[in-house]
């Protein structure tokens, strides 16, 4: 094979990227760390970028102060999930995109949701409840909603 593509010599052993580990949906508490996994194969080794709700995700490679890190494996690691009343920068639908000069591969969508903690007679998080602390009774009950 003696074709030339984008200034690189195409070799028989080169191949387009493919996703070998897709990210999974996550439900995470505010302030906690989280990882969206993504692993891609290809030759040459593909670069990986992440997109949230169609927009490219800024990581520590773009901004050293970012709370999101692109790991060598291609996974996206959150030092802490940021979630406020007005701003929910981490909650959304994510995909990873792997690219090399032969093409690109896009992962399945994965949603990242922040667990809701309700107040009142019970605390609820992600379909479960735990009785509030009671100084007179150290036993706490829990169940599913």
Automatic annotation (TrEMBL):
GO terms for cellular component: axon; plasma membrane. Pfam families: I-set. It comes from the Eukaryota. Keywords: Immunoglobulin domain. The keyword Ribosomal protein does not apply. One of its GO terms (molecular function) is cell-cell adhesion mediator activity. One of its GO terms (biological process) is homophilic cell adhesion via plasma membrane adhesion molecules. PANTHER family: BASIGIN RELATED, ROUNDABOUT HOMOLOG 3. This is Roundabout-like protein.
């Amino acid at each position: 094979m003696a074709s030339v593509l984008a200034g690189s010599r195409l070799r028989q052993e080169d191949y387009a990227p493919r996703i070998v580990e897709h990210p999974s949906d996550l439900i995470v508490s505010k302030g906690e760390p989280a990882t969206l996994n993504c692993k891609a194969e290809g030759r040459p080794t593909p670069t990986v970028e992440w997109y949230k709700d169609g927009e490219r995700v800024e990581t520590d490679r773009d901004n050293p102060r970012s709370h999101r890190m692109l790991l060598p494996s291609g996974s996206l690691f959150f030092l802490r999930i940021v979630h406020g009343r007005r701003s929910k920068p981490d909650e959304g639908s994510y995909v990873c995109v792997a690219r090399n000069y032969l093409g690109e591969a896009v992962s399945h969508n994965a949603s990242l949701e922040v667990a809701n903690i309700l107040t009142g007679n019970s605390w609820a998080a992600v379909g479960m409840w735990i009785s509030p602390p009671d100084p007179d009774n150290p036993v706490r009950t829990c169940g599913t909603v």
